[in-house]
């Protein structure tokens, strides 16, 4: 009886143990690094007493994008995000000069200006160029979600996003930045990952691998 029990246990272990010959499938987004080219204007800088401290700002954005990376990874896309540059730009945000929206930021023209500037920088195609601004904009906050490029990541076109937010040094509020990052990466929704998203990012992964082999 003991011998029969031993054989049953042995067989169970044999059939349930994972085969060493099996090669795990690559995780979505693995080996993909997003290079964050971070820019901010005076309205964003003015939301914190530390806004004029360049060391503080660099550390702040590094922490923000660490949290963005963690958030995107939790959705099943294992990209890494590296902050490549942090700088203040006073003239990228385009403002209305008159009319109802006098002095408010023109979101669409600001995005176009950001894209043009990003193209002139000639960064690698795995870069996203961010402009952080506190506003106010000429449209409600919900509509500023549209201020990003579409289907540009890892293409010959510059990827860019205008992020409407403020400095939150105690909480490192990152959700707006994460939302704009996922939308710029091509997610259909910033809160969930669709089958179409998975296919799209699988193609990006293959393309980056081909570029790496060519190098």
Question: Topology of this structure?
Answer:
Layout: H1 2-16, E1 33-40, H2 42-45, H3 54-74, E2 80-88, H4 107-121, E3 127-133, E4 159-164, H5 175-185, H6 195-214
Parallel strand pairs: 1-2, 1-3, 3-4
Helix pairs in contact: 3-5
Give descriptors for this structure.
disordered C terminus, alpha/beta, 215 residues, Collagenase (Catalytic Domain)
Count of helical regions: 6
Number of discrete domains = 1
Q: Report the order of strands and helices.
A: HEHHEHEEHH
Strand order of the largest sheet: 2-1-3-4
Structural class: alpha/beta
Helical proportion, percent range: 40-55%
Distance between the termini: 64 Å
Q: Output the radius of gyration.
A: 22 Å
Task: Tell me the total number of β-strands.
Answer: 4
Please indicate the percent range of residues in DSSP E strands (runs of 2 or more).
5-15%
> Quick one: biggest sheet?
4 strands, parallel
CATH-defined superfamily: Collagenase (Catalytic Domain)
CATH architecture type: 3-Layer(aba) Sandwich
Query: For this structure, what is the CATH class?
Result: Alpha Beta
CATH fold label? Collagenase (Catalytic Domain)
Note the overall shape: globular
The overall pLDDT, averaged over residues, is 81
Poorly predicted residue ranges: 1-17, 211-215
